[in-house]
Amino acid sequence: MIAQLRIDDRLIHGQVALVWTKELNTPGIVVANDNAANNETVKMTLKMATPTGKKLLIRTVDDAIKVFNNPKGKDMRMFALTNNVKDALKIARNVEDIDGINVANVGRFAENADQSVQLSSTLMLDKEELTALKELVKLSIPVFNQVVPSNNKTEISSLLKNVE
After folding, report:
1. CA–CA distance, 145 with 126 (Å, rounded to integer)
2. Which of 91, 42, 36 minimizes the C-alpha distance to 68?
3. What are phi and psi of 130, to 5 degrees?
4. Fewest beta carbons within 10 Å, which of 46, 65, 72, 123?
5. How many CA atoms lie within 13 A of 67 on its CB side?
């Protein structure tokens, strides 16, 4: 069961490692990202950023879906991370047990950021990511923006009303 699927363009960093892992109290983190799964330097960096005592799995998006759907892990709470909305949509369409999707930090470092739509101070989406986000909201999973637990949850559907 995925306690939270977080979309964060930096994957594991201070907010994730120090705040969210404690808040969600999961035994580990699953990074679902094709680049990270196939790049030894990125893997090493993510491992270094993982809090002591937490397990880390780094898988391609397709392999992560297999992990999430494995009956052996059915009762295990997992904190999942992707760095883009399209990967989160693929996971959400193929995994049944997701408590919520936190669209936290996306698009701020994209090369085409000047062509993106800004939904909040931490969300800047290009046309493809915006379309994927609209599809994500249509699923029966809570989709929200919450950078850190002390922030209020903002429903993504309310942010999308400003761009439609």
Report:
1. 17
2. 91
3. -65, -40
4. 72
5. 21
**pLDDT for position 126:** 92
Would you give the end-to-end CA distance of the chain in angstroms?
33
Residue 110 in this model has a pLDDT that exceeds 80: no
pLDDT-derived band at 111, boundaries 50, 70, 90: confident
Pairwise CA distance, residues 135 & 145, whole Å: 16
Kindly name the residue from 2, 3, 11, 13 that is annotated as catalytic: 13
Q: What pTM value is reported for the model?
A: 0.94
154 is catalytic: no
Residue 144 near residue 153, CB atoms below 8 Å: yes
99 in Cβ contact with 4 (< 8 Å) = yes
